[in-house]
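User: Could you go from structure to sequence for me? I need the amino acid at each position, not a summary. Structure tokens:
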């Protein structure tokens, strides 16, 4: 009887020792992961330690049906305090389905801004009144809501890409590119670093002009999405989150950014569709003394197409429908 009790006591001690070892290993793992996250986050944040951010007044529109509309604004300050928005994209994210719809707005769209008597190019809205005026203009012209915004200067885009994708981002360059982009790109599928990818996105000296440039910007967003959401990139998240906090000006909190990123991974990836406004067949070229050469668009038609796109219709279907209208023809031809 006594022998049996001794054996039971030994078994209990062994279980306790195993439990302690497991607990210690678990604690060490948690501390190691926490330390890795912290130091990588700080490393990313320190990359942008010299960046200055301006005070931005912004009141986001209320979210509807678990969909977040984020206005992405790309600027090229070149040392100037005030600049026009070179890139304007509305990224609509359905957090239940992980479906992302991107609407790019051409910068030469002619429009009227709330509070202004004359019209200007759409990219002038950011110059005159910042994020809020651009938000109000998109709302009044196209009926879109903007829940959040994110602004990035092109000079910082290079750094972010190199953090997010240290081995580069795979894209297909349709033809040689070099004019006014600071790099020389050769035709073909290849992996581009941050500087090269920015050059690819900014090139516009071919027959597609600014429309081709916007198309490539959308391709860059999709390629970055694929790269960042790949399993091999998860280890880069802490440093990327730190770099985003330093390089990107946004009303999204760090916890919201982390939540959006991990929800996308947890959901098994993101499906993406993209549209450029105006659609072919809904605009013509024009000129105004205060604005120069512009895109005179059918606002109501494009507003209708945007609404249908954001509510689930495919961009390809809507493009084909729009092209059945009057084709865009430069004035004077």
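Assistant: Here is the amino acid at each position, in order:
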């Amino acid at each position: 009887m006594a022998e049996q009790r001794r054996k039971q006591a030994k078994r209990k001690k062994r279980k306790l020792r195993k439990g302690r070892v497991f607990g210690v290993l678990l604690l060490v793992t948690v501390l190691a992961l926490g330390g890795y996250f912290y130091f990588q986050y700080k490393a990313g944040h320190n990359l942008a330690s010299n960046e200055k951010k301006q005070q931005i007044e912004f009141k986001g529109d209320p979210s509807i049906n678990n969909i977040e509309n984020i206005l992405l604004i790309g600027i090229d300050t070149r040392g100037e305090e005030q600049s026009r928005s070179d890139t304007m994209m509305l990224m609509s994210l359905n957090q239940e389905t992980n479906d992302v719809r991107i609407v790019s707005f051409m910068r030469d769209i002619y429009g009227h801004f709330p509070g202004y008597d004359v019209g200007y190019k759409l990219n002038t809205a950011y110059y005159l009144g910042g994020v809020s005026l651009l938000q109000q203009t998109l709302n009044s012209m196209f009926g879109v809501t903007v829940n959040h915004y994110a602004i990035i200067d092109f000079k910082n885009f290079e750094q972010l890409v190199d953090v997010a994708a240290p081995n580069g981002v795979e894209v297909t360059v349709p033809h040689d590119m070099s004019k006014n982009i600071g790099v020389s790109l050769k035709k073909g599928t290849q992996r581009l670093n941050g500087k090269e990818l920015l050059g690819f996105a900014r090139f516009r000296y071919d027959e597609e002009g600014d429309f081709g440039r916007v198309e490539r910007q959308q391709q860059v967003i999709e390629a970055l999405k694929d790269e960042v959401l790949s399993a091999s990139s998860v280890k880069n998240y802490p440093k990327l989150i730190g770099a985003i906090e330093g390089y990107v000006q946004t009303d999204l909190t760090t916890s919201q950014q982390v939540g959006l990123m991990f929800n996308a991974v947890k959901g098994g990836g993101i499906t993406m569709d993209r549209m450029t406004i105006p659609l072919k067949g809904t605009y013509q070229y024009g000129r105004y003394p205060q604005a120069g050469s512009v895109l005179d668009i059918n606002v109501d038609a494009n507003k209708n197409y945007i609404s249908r796109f954001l509510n689930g219709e495919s961009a390809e279907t809507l493009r084909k429908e729009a092209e059945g209208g009057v084709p865009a023809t430069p004035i004077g031809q």
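One structural detail worth keeping in mind: The chain has a mean pLDDT of 86.
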